[in-house]
Amino acid sequence: MPRVVMIALIQRAAxxxxxxxxxxxxxxxxxxVILLGIHTEDTMEELDWVARKCANLRIxxxxxxxxxxxxxxxxxxxxxxxxxxxxGDTRKGNRPSxxxxxxxxxxxxxxxxxxxxxxxxxxxxxxxxxxxxxxQVHLINDxxxxxxxxKRAAPISSHA
Length: 160
Fold this sequence. Notes:
The chain is an alpha/beta fold. The chain is built from 3 helices and 8 strands; from the N terminus they run βββαββαβαββ. 34% of the residues are buried.
Protein backbone atom coordinates (compact mmCIF):
# COMPACT_ATOMS: atom_id res chain seq x y z
CA MET A 1 0.00 0.00 0.00
CA PRO A 2 1.36 3.47 -0.85
CA ARG A 3 2.42 5.57 2.09
CA VAL A 4 1.39 9.20 2.46
CA VAL A 5 4.19 11.66 2.57
CA MET A 6 3.97 15.43 1.98
CA ILE A 7 0.58 16.99 2.79
CA ALA A 8 -0.72 20.41 1.75
CA LEU A 9 -4.01 21.73 3.11
CA ILE A 10 -5.00 24.40 0.61
CA GLN A 11 -7.55 27.11 1.29
CA ARG A 12 -8.77 29.66 -1.23
CA ALA A 13 -8.63 32.97 0.59
CA ALA A 14 -10.09 36.44 0.10
CA UNK A 15 -7.17 37.61 2.27
CA UNK A 16 -4.82 36.22 4.89
CA UNK A 17 -1.92 37.15 7.11
CA UNK A 18 0.36 35.60 9.73
CA UNK A 19 1.24 37.36 12.98
CA UNK A 20 4.06 36.50 15.37
CA UNK A 21 4.17 38.39 18.68
CA UNK A 22 1.84 41.05 17.27
CA UNK A 23 3.93 41.60 14.13
CA UNK A 24 2.60 40.66 10.68
CA UNK A 25 5.27 38.58 8.93
CA UNK A 26 3.36 37.45 5.83
CA UNK A 27 0.29 38.85 4.07
CA UNK A 28 -1.70 38.23 0.90
CA UNK A 29 -4.86 39.61 -0.64
CA UNK A 30 -6.84 37.07 -2.65
CA UNK A 31 -5.05 33.79 -3.23
CA UNK A 32 -4.07 30.55 -1.56
CA VAL A 33 -3.16 29.72 2.01
CA ILE A 34 -1.18 26.49 2.11
CA LEU A 35 -0.60 24.67 5.38
CA LEU A 36 2.33 22.37 4.60
CA GLY A 37 3.17 19.17 6.43
CA ILE A 38 6.60 17.63 5.83
CA HIS A 39 6.92 13.88 6.40
CA THR A 40 10.04 12.24 7.82
CA GLU A 41 10.65 10.53 4.44
CA ASP A 42 9.91 13.44 2.08
CA THR A 43 12.26 14.01 -0.82
CA MET A 44 12.53 16.62 -3.56
CA GLU A 45 10.33 14.39 -5.72
CA GLU A 46 7.36 14.82 -3.38
CA LEU A 47 8.16 18.48 -2.86
CA ASP A 48 8.20 19.25 -6.60
CA TRP A 49 4.98 17.30 -7.21
CA VAL A 50 3.07 19.07 -4.41
CA ALA A 51 4.39 22.52 -5.44
CA ARG A 52 3.28 21.94 -9.04
CA LYS A 53 -0.11 20.68 -7.88
CA CYS A 54 -0.64 23.76 -5.67
CA ALA A 55 0.39 26.18 -8.43
CA ASN A 56 -1.84 24.55 -11.04
CA LEU A 57 -5.00 23.62 -9.10
CA ARG A 58 -7.92 25.16 -10.92
CA ILE A 59 -9.96 26.44 -7.99
CA UNK A 60 -10.60 30.09 -8.91
CA UNK A 61 -13.70 31.09 -10.87
CA UNK A 62 -13.56 31.90 -14.58
CA UNK A 63 -15.87 34.40 -16.33
CA UNK A 64 -18.76 31.90 -16.05
CA UNK A 65 -18.16 31.34 -12.33
CA UNK A 66 -16.73 27.83 -12.76
CA UNK A 67 -13.65 26.79 -10.79
CA UNK A 68 -11.42 26.70 -13.86
CA UNK A 69 -8.42 28.97 -13.14
CA UNK A 70 -5.26 28.40 -11.12
CA UNK A 71 -3.49 30.86 -8.83
CA UNK A 72 -0.96 31.19 -11.67
CA UNK A 73 -3.74 32.10 -14.12
CA UNK A 74 -5.23 34.82 -11.90
CA UNK A 75 -1.93 36.15 -10.51
CA UNK A 76 -3.05 36.04 -6.87
CA UNK A 77 -0.83 35.64 -3.83
CA UNK A 78 0.24 32.54 -1.93
CA UNK A 79 0.90 32.25 1.81
CA UNK A 80 2.67 29.08 3.01
CA UNK A 81 2.76 28.07 6.68
CA UNK A 82 4.64 25.06 8.02
CA UNK A 83 2.16 22.80 9.83
CA UNK A 84 3.62 19.66 11.44
CA UNK A 85 0.29 18.94 13.14
CA UNK A 86 -1.09 17.71 9.81
CA UNK A 87 0.69 14.49 10.77
CA GLY A 88 -1.04 14.22 14.14
CA ASP A 89 -2.11 10.61 14.56
CA THR A 90 -5.20 10.48 16.78
CA ARG A 91 -6.07 6.79 16.39
CA LYS A 92 -4.91 5.87 19.90
CA GLY A 93 -5.57 7.80 23.09
CA ASN A 94 -6.32 11.50 23.34
CA ARG A 95 -2.87 12.94 22.77
CA PRO A 96 -1.84 13.05 19.09
CA SER A 97 1.37 11.36 18.05
CA UNK A 98 3.61 13.24 15.62
CA UNK A 99 6.11 10.49 14.82
CA UNK A 100 5.55 10.88 11.06
CA UNK A 101 6.20 14.64 11.10
CA UNK A 102 9.72 15.54 10.05
CA UNK A 103 11.94 17.12 12.67
CA UNK A 104 13.33 20.63 12.12
CA UNK A 105 16.65 19.47 10.58
CA UNK A 106 14.76 17.86 7.68
CA UNK A 107 11.55 19.92 7.65
CA UNK A 108 12.96 23.46 7.61
CA UNK A 109 15.11 23.08 4.47
CA UNK A 110 12.23 21.23 2.77
CA UNK A 111 9.78 23.99 3.73
CA UNK A 112 12.14 26.66 2.41
CA UNK A 113 12.72 24.71 -0.82
CA UNK A 114 8.96 24.28 -1.25
CA UNK A 115 8.40 28.04 -0.90
CA UNK A 116 11.19 28.76 -3.37
CA UNK A 117 9.88 26.22 -5.87
CA UNK A 118 6.32 27.51 -5.57
CA UNK A 119 7.52 31.10 -5.96
CA UNK A 120 9.17 30.16 -9.26
CA UNK A 121 6.03 28.38 -10.44
CA UNK A 122 3.68 31.27 -9.65
CA UNK A 123 6.32 33.79 -10.78
CA UNK A 124 6.06 35.98 -7.70
CA UNK A 125 7.30 35.96 -4.10
CA UNK A 126 5.47 33.63 -1.72
CA UNK A 127 4.47 35.03 1.67
CA UNK A 128 5.37 32.84 4.64
CA UNK A 129 5.11 32.44 8.34
CA UNK A 130 8.26 31.70 10.32
CA UNK A 131 9.32 28.10 10.64
CA UNK A 132 8.96 26.79 14.20
CA UNK A 133 7.37 29.97 15.57
CA UNK A 134 4.10 30.26 17.48
CA UNK A 135 1.92 31.95 14.84
CA GLN A 136 -1.58 33.30 14.52
CA VAL A 137 -2.91 32.69 11.01
CA HIS A 138 -5.74 35.04 10.05
CA LEU A 139 -7.74 33.87 7.07
CA ILE A 140 -10.93 34.75 5.29
CA ASN A 141 -11.70 31.51 3.46
CA ASP A 142 -13.30 32.28 0.09
CA UNK A 143 -16.10 29.95 -0.89
CA UNK A 144 -15.22 28.24 1.39
CA UNK A 145 -12.84 26.17 -0.70
CA UNK A 146 -10.49 23.84 1.19
CA UNK A 147 -8.62 20.94 -0.40
CA UNK A 148 -6.33 18.27 1.01
CA UNK A 149 -3.45 17.45 -1.35
CA UNK A 150 -1.04 14.66 -0.55
CA LYS A 151 1.69 12.94 -2.46
CA ARG A 152 1.59 9.20 -2.02
CA ALA A 153 4.89 7.41 -2.41
CA ALA A 154 5.52 3.79 -3.19
CA PRO A 155 5.97 1.64 -0.11
CA ILE A 156 9.49 1.02 1.02
CA SER A 157 10.43 -2.51 0.09
CA SER A 158 11.92 -4.67 2.80
CA HIS A 159 13.70 -6.66 0.09
CA ALA A 160 16.98 -5.15 -1.03
